[in-house]
Amino acid sequence: MSTALHIAPAKVRALAKYQDNPATREAPWVRFALLTLGLGFFLIFLVLPLVAVFTEALRKGWEVYFASLADEETFSAIKLTLIAAAIAVPLNLVFGLSASWLIAKHDFRGKQLLITFIDLPFSVSPVVAGLMYVLIFGAQGWFGPWLQANDIKIIFAVPGIVLATVFVTFPFVARELIPLMQAQGKDEEEAATVLGASGWQTFRRVTLPNIKWGLLYGVILCNARAMGEFGAVSVVSGHIRGLTNTLPLHVEILYNEYQFAAAFAVASLLALLALVTLVIKQFIEWRASQSHGNE
Amino acid sequence: MALFLRRRVLPGFAPTLGFTLFYLSLIVLIPLIAVFVKSSGHGFEAFWAAATSPRVMASYKLSFGASLLAALINLFFGLILAWCIVRYEFPGKKLVDALIDLPFALPTAVAGIALTALYAPNGWVGSLFAPGGSLAFLFGEEGLKIAFTPLGILLALIFIGLPFIVRTVQPVLEDMETELEEAAASLGAQRWQTFRYVVLPTLLPALLTGFALAFARAVGEYGSVIFIAGNIPMVSEITPLMIIAKLEQYDYVGATAIAAVMLIVSFVLLLIINGLQAWSSQRGARK
Q1: What distance in Å separates residue B136's CA from the closest CA in chain A?
Q2: In this complex, is the C-beta atom of B141 within 8 Å of any C-beta atom belonging to chain A?
Q3: First CA to last CA across chain A, in angstroms?
Q4: Which residues, 6+ apart, have CB-to-CB distance to B269 below 8 Å?
């Protein structure tokens, strides 16, 4: 995936290089036209929708805004969203650490195939992801009759929502760590092991400090997606108000009931989450480039 | 492979291999297999009838057509944006660079209702093109309806696809040596010729990778599209919506058949993307 953390400490120097060099410089009118096209597109397609979320949310004033947030169904949606993320993120974090340790620090046959499999959830439509679990755990599914006989509900209940969230956020941490750990090689870990460190000590004292920024980056991306997932969760949730509604589903329900101010108020919470995610991402990139430069 | 037999210096091979494969199978592989097993369970004819009914065929045409067009538009503007960010200095550049990732971070349902609010006939942009709007004359008396038409779907797919192109092209552009362009210029190439024959070929693998990623994401996209699509049968129904529609009618055979078709398309796209990425990194290594 193209979200990988990349560090370019020489960026500032390179910039002056482009503009002072006649061979890499465009005519002023070309530069002006490109900037106008690029930034115009950026404003219309990215900034405008973001501004629209907050304007629509506050259209009827702060009182209505806070009233729609301080709603019991909104609270239960927030709670369920937090629960789903609190289960999905740690699971995929452990998986990411395990998979990246395996792939980056060991050689074995079929490694490339394994990496491709890990990427799979990125290319599967969220709706198909939800459907998969319906086919396994739904009333018509493989385990449907057995689950019904034992009175266990997975589809149209919280476990289904958690499963769908785990699936769509599956690759995030692994995808961040694998290239990072591959680039770092295994010399340091091998040295630690030869000096008598146990596997766990090696991981905690040598590997973890090296990957901490990449790890944090993967976790916040994973979390943003976990809290914002819509399609997959929509299929397995059943939209039971107050019970199986996550925040994005709550937005949909309010919107379809023409409670636009309330829908956008809840949506603005999710938009804030996205903005916070982007700020943390910037911070991590800055910290990573700093520690990169100090080496 | 001899490596497999050699004693390993670093510990943890067996447990991480075991856990990784177990978790991967449980969450990803077995559920995916379920789709194919279930879709073949009712015979090929039922599968084929469900996967190629006229309404579903219309949804393929729309989903693939709009995704292709959105990815093409993003290819053009994404390249320009990446170029501006890497090569030019302008106020607010850091903010622009950071906000490019917004479509990755913003929940799709939020994007969906925001775009609908903007492009509906009474929205900020939509009202400009609606009858009586200041830009409506460009499209005759009726004006131009954006939301609740395929055009609205296209806009939503452009929104979610843009970062894929910018973020695949940007690092390649940053790493590109200026010597190549200097050599071209000293040999008498115009700036446009240098771009066309030196810069563009270097960027080609990254551009194609970004294009394929944006296309793959757009084909499966659901949340940002359904609000703005209007969901009119044969006109503005996307393929993922068809799966939901079949599920709501308890037509599991139909839903599974369409899902199987979408999965096959995803696998093919994933293979193409992997190939492109390998080509990309090979290019990088040769330099």
Answers
A1: 18
A2: no
A3: 27
A4: A123, B212, B215, B216, B219
